[in-house]
Amino acid sequence: MALQLHHHAHTRAANVVWMLEELGVDYELVPVDVRGGAHKSEAFRALNPMGKLPTLVDGDTVITESAAIALHLADRYGLGTLAPALDDPARATYYRWILYSPSVIEPGCYAHTAKWDYQPGSAGWGTYEAMLDTLEAAIGAGPWLLGDRFTMADVVFGGTVAYMLQFGMLDARPAFTAYVERLDGRPARRKAREINEASLAQ
Questions:
Q1: Distance CA 2, CA 179 (A)
Q2: 21: domain range?
Q3: Residues 73 and 96 both lie in one domain
Q4: How many Å apart are CA 98 and CA 91, to the nearest integer?
Q5: Number of structural domains found in the chain
């Protein structure tokens, strides 16, 4: 059974298209009319009680949350390539940056942009400046988060960095913009962008 991605290009499902293209697996896009509220329907919430995208169906398995989808896909279809092998010490760094995106980058950028009143010592993302420095250190000399090895961590982390830069929620440090330029050069990312744009045109 082909993978089914419940999809709308103006959601995080757009980045999952990139994941699937990097893996080169067969998949089906299942359009979800988010403007019409289809993601809040009883039928959809039976798949994902949050009523959100992305939602991926892999046979009898339903996976939600972008980072969880990335980990599942890479382990099942890209172990040893897009995901370090289970006994590879690099797997720790790989986990770190995949999970850093939803738990630190996203809330940290939203907090900074919306000028939330919070205590940095109590928030998982700390200060905005510390987060920026951490991002820059993670990218390092590159080209990828694991040096010369491109992995699913770059899709999740890099996709988040690219999104935040696009909407001015992340300072455009040279290390960030150069990293996103490298990501934009990947054929799978370009193909995913074409697919997402075509879905909007429909």
A1: 32
A2: 3-81+189-201
A3: no
A4: 11
A5: 2
Angle formed by the axes of helices 90-100 and 128-139, nearest 10°: 140
Residue 34 CA to residue 53 CA, distance in Å, equals 9
User: Is residue 34 within 8 Å of 53, Cβ to Cβ?
Assistant: yes
Q: Do 22 and 61 reside in the same domain of the chain?
A: yes
Measured between its terminal Cα atoms, the distance across the chain in Å is: 25
Alpha-carbon span 78 to 188, nearest angstrom = 14
Side-chain-side CA neighbours of residue 132 (13 Å): 15
CA atoms within 13 A on the CB side of 6: 25
**Residue 98 belongs to domain with CATH number:** 1.20.1050.10
pTM of the model: 0.95
Q: How far apart are CA 62 and CA 73, in angstroms?
A: 12
Per-residue pLDDT of the chain (202 residues; tens, 9 = 90+): 589 999 999 999 999 999 999 999 999 999 999 999 999 999 999 999 999 999 999 999 999 999 999 999 999 999 999 999 999 999 999 999 999 999 999 999 999 999 999 999 999 889 999 999 999 999 999 999 999 999 999 999 999 999 999 999 999 999 999 999 999 999 999 999 999 999 998 7
